[in-house]
Amino acid sequence: PLAELHNLEVMMINRNEFETWEAKKLKIFAQFKSQTDGQEIIIDERRDRDTDRVIRLGKGKSRMDQLEFKSKAGSSSSRAQQMITAQEFTNQLERLDKELKKFWEKEDKVACIRIAIQCAKLLNDVASPVFYPQKFILLTDILDHFGTLVYGRMKKLTKLHSGGKIIIDDDMNEQNFDFTLIPDKVQEICMNWFLKSACIREVLPRIYLELCLVQCHKFMQRRVQQSDLLRLSKMVRGIAEPLCACYTAAYLARVGYSIDPEAKDYLIILTDFSFKITEKAVKE
């Protein structure tokens, strides 16, 4: 672990060699897409129905049949699972992202957060490990989109409730911003988003929802602290499935870097789970 910590320090120094997430995504798709093209993957039918239910409950009354799969299960033991091609699953997630935007424009925030929660829940499914890297990218893109929508709304509300006096600049230095100027109404609305994510019973979606919303902390008169990242890293330890835990830790690292490139204590969690996944792979 000490050697790994030293490596982290070296990485922070050599920041010019840092690879952006957008560039990394392209490499991941290039590496794994050829392995999944034309192949069928296993999905959990029950989670599929849950995600579809979110769409149907929305005020927009959308009846999109985005997640209606053709079942390939032939025995009673496989009725809880279905088969779908990787490309079909990818197309359906892209349509789901568009539905998220539609519901947001219709002011149906409840349907939007339900979509975000169900996307996070889909990351619990590791039945097709070879497809998991692609699924992780597609689903976290939707979560990032959700977080961006909420952040944009908070910016507009801040300007509205301050009479146009406060304009949040994405490129501003937070150290020079007076967070006490954020209107009380905006703080209340922002806090409500975090309370909704805190009420999620399952650990995985709770972590992902908080991470995709974490940039909104500034609207509650506070900056994201090192303690917030450490707390989330400890929550990652509660994820039983090693593959899920590793990718959740990776998402934590990506979000954490965007907030504070100098912070690194919480990144030790990545070392912990790298050993965990290696041990599991050796046993199997």
UniProtKB/TrEMBL annotation:
- Which BP terms from GO are recorded? endocytic recycling; protein transport
Where does the record place it? Endosome
- UniProtKB keywords: Endosome, Protein transport, Transport
Kindly indicate whether the keyword Protein transport belongs to this entry. Answer: yes
**Principal subcellular localisation of the protein:** other
**InterPro entries associated with the record:** VPS35L
Q: Name one GO cellular component term.
A: endosome
Which domain of life does the protein's organism represent? Eukaryota
| Family of this protein | Belongs to the VPS35L family.
Q: What is this protein called?
A: Uncharacterized protein
- Source organism of this protein record: Strombidium rassoulzadegani
